[in-house]
Design a protein that fits this description.
Blueprint lengths: L2 H8 L3 H9 L7 E2 L5 E2 L2 H15 L4 H11 L4 H31 L10 H9 L6 H15 L5 H11 L2 H11 L11 H11 L2 H5 L12 H8 L4 H18 L2
Antiparallel strand pairs: 1-2
Helix pairs in contact: 1-3, 3-5, 6-8, 9-10, 10-13
InterPro entries: DNA-bd_dom_put_sf, MerR-type_HTH_dom, MerR_fam
Protein name: MerR family transcriptional regulator
Keywords: Coiled coil, DNA-binding
């Protein structure tokens, strides 16, 4: 194969291949009498390996170390690993398309890149201009993105999302935006919020008592999103959830 042919085969540019030769990442191939480089299947496999590794974020020095470890391996083994890499990429693309399909099917305005299960939960919630409800939605989106949510948990939260009484609780929390941290409404609202969460939610969380292991810095960052009185309500709710999850 000529350099243009192998470049097209492995999805690289001829400039990139020449650079790999220049830095010693790819050995110079045999040249024909006319001076043209000629590449083999082994060269194509090596270049495909380089491309996969750089796509994973490895620097060229790190790639060189990996290739050195590959030097004694059979071609069939390297090809099998490349095929496994492609399979993982295909699975990732399928998952992205699944999420995209859920977003396209969601009602207008529901544009968060969330899992289908969370998108379904959001679809059940009534429209509201409550800042507290919006913040709760953002936090759920963050947990979902970090992989900390779960379809069972979202399903258990479904009845809460559709309950108008819960929206009234959000509005009560909104009313504390300018209140001091010792406002007399705080204990009652915290108790009401805790009572609104059914046991099914805790049953859906594996080892729910693990919520007590949340890093203090994360808790502080969360509370900082709220006004002082609101933060006190949320702090009490979190503490009650930890105790409830340990039962």
């Amino acid at each position: 194969m000529r350099i243009g042919e192998i470049a097209a085969l492995v999805g690289l540019t001829t400039r990139a291949i020449r650079h790999y030769h220049h830095v010693g990442l790819l050995p110079e191939p045999v040249r024909l009498p006319n001076g043209y480089r000629t590449y083999t299947v082994r060269d194509a496999v090596l270049l495909a390996r380089v491309r996969r590794l750089t796509e994973l974020g490895l620097g060229l020095d790190e790639v060189r170390d990996v290739l050195a470890d590959d030097a004694g391996r059979d071609l069939a083994e390297v090809l099998e690993e490349l095929d496994a890499d492609l399979a993982r990429q295909e699975a990732d693309i399928r998952e992205r398309r699944r999420r995209l399909a859920a977003l396209r099917a969601a009602p207008p305005g529901a544009t968060e890149p969330v899992s289908p299960a969370l998108a379904d939960l959001f679809a059940k919630a009534p429209a509201t201009g409550s800042p507290s409800a919006a913040l709760d939605r953002e936090l759920l989106t963050l947990l979902d993105t970090a992989g900390e949510g779960g379809a069972d948990v979202y399903a258990a939260l479904g009845p809460i999302a559709a309950d108008p009484a819960v929206l009234a609780l959000y509005e009560r929390l909104d009313e504390l935006a300018d209140a001091p941290p010792d406002d007399p409404r705080i204990p009652g609202l915290a108790d009401a919020l805790v009572a609104a969460v059914p046991d099914a939610v805790f049953d859906a969380i594996p080892e729910a008592g693990g919520t007590g292991a949340v890093a203090p810095a994360v808790v502080e960052a969360l509370l900082a999103e709220y006004a002082p009185a609101q933060a006190e309500v949320v702090r009490r709710v979190m503490e009650a959830f930890v105790q409830r999850g340990r039962r």
